[in-house]
Design a protein that fits this description.
Number of domains: 1
Oligomer: single chain
Radius of gyration: 17 Å
CATH superfamily: HUPs
CATH topology: Rossmann fold
Order of helices and strands: EHEHHEHEHHEHEHH
Helix content: 25-40%
Largest sheet: 6 strands, parallel
Number of strands: 6
Length: about 210
């Protein structure tokens, strides 16, 4: 089954993640999406409002489209959540996850990356090896430039093959956390089961 992975802190996951990932998966003919919440996001050291990894994992599980669908799972695109990064100690580097998935029997690992993160790819841990070992799919969105000139030329020829346009959804995890701290509702920004979980567990009320 052709599978697309999306990693991230998902702090919390929201409709923008789901809508844009679905658009890319459908455009590229993927049959499954696997969400991989980061245990310890390496690009966010010391973040004071990062929910526990177990909470972020649970919110991803609650956000799966099949949970909210009156007709059951989409027969054309299935969704899963993986906890592969949670048991590891230290920063959750993508290269370690890709190698673990391959040890688990994946013949190839296809990894979705946003245009904003693509611009920082040279700074990722062991980026050259990662580019060799994973197939990157680049999610381009209106108004988010890709600075191809800043990337090593050999990378550009590989990455440009898999650029897919996705809709611009003006929702962010930062916005959701800010609204929670301000006492404002977050309905419609993230699936209702995630909204309920955030409220029930008092997530993002204050900076810890």
């Amino acid at each position: 089954m052709k599978t697309l992975c999306l990693g991230g802190s998902f702090n919390p996951i929201h409709h923008g993640h789901l809508i844009c990932t679905r658009a890319v998966a459908e455009a590229m003919g993927y049959q499954k999406v696997v969400l991989i919440p980061s245990g310890r996001p390496p690009h966010k050291p010391g973040q004071t409002d990062l929910a526990d990894a177990s909470d972020r994992l649970k919110m991803c599980q609650l956000a799966l489209p099949s949970h909210d669908s009156a007709t059951g799972p989409n027969p054309h695109l299935s969704w899963e959540v993986s906890d592969v990064e949670l048991p590891r100690t230290g920063p959750s580097y993508t290269i370690d996850t890709v190698r673990q998935l391959k040890r688990d029997g994946w013949p190839e690992v296809h990894w979705l990356i946003g245009a904003d993160m693509l611009n920082y790819l040279p700074k990722w841990h062991d980026a050259a090896a990662l580019l060799r070992e994973a197939v990157f799919v680049v999610m381009a969105r209106p108004g988010v430039p890709i600075y191809w000139d800043a990337l090593p030329p050999p990378w550009v020829s590989v990455l440009q093959k898999n650029v897919v346009e996705a809709p611009l959804i003006q929702i962010s995890s930062t916005l959701i956390r800010q609204r929670v701290r301000a006492g404002r509702d977050i309905d419609y920004l993230t699936p209702h089961k995630v909204v309920d979980y955030i409220r029930a567990n008092n997530l993002y009320k204050t900076r810890e």
